[in-house]
Amino acid sequence: MTALSRSRKVAAMNDAPRAVSAADKLDWLRLIRSENVGPVTFAQLLARFGSARAALAALPDLARRGGAQSIRICGKADAEREMAGLAALGARLIAIGEDDYPPALAAIDDAPPLLSALGHGHLLKKPMIAIVGARNASANGKRFAKMIARELGEAGFVVASGFARGIDAAAHEGALAGGTAAVFAGGIDVIYPEENAALFERIAAEGVAVAEQPLGTAPRGRHFPKRNRIISGVSLGVLVVEAAQRSGSLITARFALEQGREVFAVPGSPLDPRCQGTNDLIRRGATLTESVDDILQQVKGMLRRPVSERTGSGYAAAAAAIGEGELAAGRGKVVESLGPAPVPVDEIVRQCQLSPAAVAVILLELELAGRLQRHPGHQVSLAATG
To answer: Is residue 138 part of a domain?
Structure first.
């Protein structure tokens, strides 16, 4: 765990939930919608500058120091239009630290600072189990997912899934009575796949839908892994019902392991390609799941020990100032230590013999300049070009 992660978690445990003001939320939205600003960068900017407004003012200079000529900053009018569009849909933005923000999600290092939410936001505070699986699911797979989802709801859990066809849709349908959370890959106003339009209406009326992407965003390939880390992040555990090798559901299971969640898998016939991924998960240590009791036995202890304490207004106070001399001397060393393959940030600190704070600032500058890519497990690499 990085020093920044520790500081965020300490702040989370010490602060009580509170609302983020409308003005601050607008600044947060502008910051997260600005070029090259992702959740980790957002957290680091707030930790360094103390507020989104101050971070916005600092973006051009930081990007220039990282080697960029300019950086696109989300305008106030654009952010106001997005907030107005959400209000017109009956949706709203939930900020990390607010009462309805999923407490388990707040514990992960790349938690979205803002989530668009449509429906019954109070469901996001309840304990969740995710159910994911194949889009081209078998009839038995969909029947099992629907049954387990219903039984999890009866046991007091909200069921989270990704709103895809197949296993996801079956899980949402089975969980409607007890509560379900649909995590969208695109904007919360973009129904994908279109065949789930009727299911969307039911979730909006009886459950809750959430999205990280801006309104109007059509889901693209790069959006689905981001969605998957939210599905696992909101949950105590992830159940994979059917999944072929190299399935997106296995990406969700991998995120769950990285986030310290439980992974469950339903066994299947070795002759069915849709079961190869789940059988391999079991081989690697996932809990073999044949009934809801297999899940409840594993997560009951987690209910007594929540994944995270509730967060306060968000992030740690402004970090101590770092001398420009240390940064100037370290920039070349950090760039030299980077390559196309991901490397742990702690290894960069060790090799460059710089303070963790200095390395964090230099990496932040490079990322804002579009020269750095972040990877799971606190790893970074040079951004791909061309």
So the answer is: yes
